[in-house]
Amino acid sequence: MISSIAQETPPRRFNMAAYCIAPAAATRPNAQALVVVHDPAATAPAEVWTFAQLEEAVLCIASGLKAAGLAPGARILIRLENTSTYALVFFGAIAGGFVPVPTSPQLTEPEVRFVLDTAGVEAIAVGESLGLKTLPGGVRAFADDEIAGMIARGTRAPWADTAADDAAFLVYTSGTTARPKGVLHAQRSAFGRRPMYQGWYGIGPNDRMLSAGAFNWTYTLGTGLTDPWANGATAIIYTGEKDPALWPRIIAQNDATIFGATPGLYRQILKYAQPARADFGRLRHGLVAGETSPPGLFEEWTAETGTELYEALGMSEISTYVSSSPSVPRKAGTVGKPQPGRRIAILPLEGGTEPLGLGKEGLLAVHRSDPGLMLGYWNRPQEEAQVYRDEWFIGGDLAAIDEDGYVIHCGRTNDLMNALGYRVSPKEVEAVLGEHPHVGEVACAEVPVRDDVSVIAAFIVPAEGVKPDTAHIQRFAAERLAPYKRPREIVLVDTLPRTPNGKLMRSALTLPSGPQTAKT
Asked: What is the pLDDT of residues 401-437, one digit of tens each?
């Protein structure tokens, strides 16, 4: 499938940080670029940065890194707390032609050392409480106060004259392997996000984009900072207590017009904040990405708040490329349509490059000419070769395209469960069980019960105030699923395992021992 709108080609010389910041700094220097909120009860934000101030800080950091002796292309690992310094270092490094490697402050020392060793890191920006016992030889450390000193001295560097295909940043992702792999993105990656502006956000310069994630999360670095700034809009980041009941107040007090979060957080807001339509101020709509949305979320959110949620599908290698938006109405059972200019296809599981017809399930692929697509996996040529089929990049998503051009997401190839020789998507089973009135949340996985036997298990968070009858849930499933698709185990849990950013950790779903497990 090829979009009817051709995607733009980035300029030959292109710097991602300059593209995001310089235009607004020149035309709207006093407009708010970044608002940082620590305390939702405070009468004013903790920090407010204009585009002029943002440009000054970023170029001063670029100058300071260069003065420290780093050469263009040097990898700089970021291990900082959830503060604005994180964003300034990330964009400052790119502005100077260096390659930041953003990491979570929650990584353990062995995990950080793995990145240090495999990425060939030459410097590390490290917070006071996140120091390492030792650093590899030749790695330069920049502490918080040294970074603050670079900004205070006010010595600006010019924007680095980088090519569109030069490296911009390197992000590590777990993917489907036991060892995290580095996804290397080009400077053009920011230009490649342009189809998202109206294909997902519906964003303009007067918008105020609030992201629920931390500064270190690539969802926040992209959706929360890169894209709002590239549109001259204001980015708002909340760094305080992660109480879901607080979000309506944060949204309203800071005049957020767009809110970005995971489906799980929207569900928690509905449950714990019990919001009304008047609670969200000027909010126009919300953005959803990061994991599969539970059944009924969109309808419940709209009914309670009067605003829409727009979903997007993407991955670390390209960000989002399929979505609904204010101009692409949501269609139940689908994720949305390919964003304007994206070239996608559904390819056969067994191989080949001839796209499948409408309604046929296969591998979702995006054309390798897309400017948002990664440069490659850092020093992992064998894994990189596995995700390309001639001119198509295959990220592991199973999907089909319906007669209206909407994409139906059918799960991940690595999530597929094997039941009696059949491939079963956990999403299909979850969608059925999620319709049961006693089910609040549900996740399914293939789990071992003996050394040589695995079964489908359903892990269920009960609906509020309900004690589920697992036998009734089994009968409910039997009426709606083929025998090989039915869960053989039902486990009642208080919560589903998630990453700090809210993504479901399907690999952490394991069978307990005890009476809460129901068998068929």
From this structure: 999 999 999 887 777 776 655 667 788 789 889 999 9
**Structural domain ending residue among the three candidates 347, 372, 401:** 401
Q: What are phi and psi of 75, to 5 degrees?
A: -80, 130
Phi and psi at residue 167, in whole multiples of 5°?
Answer: -65, 140
- Where do the H-state alpha helices sit in 278-345? 297-305
* The pLDDT of residue 516 is above 50: no
pTM over 0.70: yes
183 plus 257 within the same structural domain: yes
What does the alpha-carbon distance between residue 399 and residue 402 come to, in Å, rounded to a whole number? 10
Contact 307, 280 (CB under 8 A): yes
Is pLDDT at 149 greater than 50 in this prediction?
yes
Between 516 and 216, name the one with better pLDDT: 216
Rounded Cα–Cα distance for residues 18 and 30 (Å): 17
Same domain? For 384 and 436 the reply is no
Q: Which residues contact 134 (CB under 8 A, 6 or more apart)?
A: none
Residues 518 and 34: their CA atoms lie apart, in Å, by: 50
DSSP for 342-377, written as a single string: -BEEEE-TTS-SS---TT--EEEEEETT-TTS-SEE
Question: pLDDT tier at 489 (50, 70, 90 boundaries)?
Answer: very high
Tally of domains within the chain: 2
Range of the domain at 470: 417-519
pLDDT of residue 319: 93
**Domain membership flag for residue 6:** no
Residue that finishes a domain, picked among 343, 375, 401:
401
Tokens of 44: 């004013």
In a domain, 8, yes or no: no
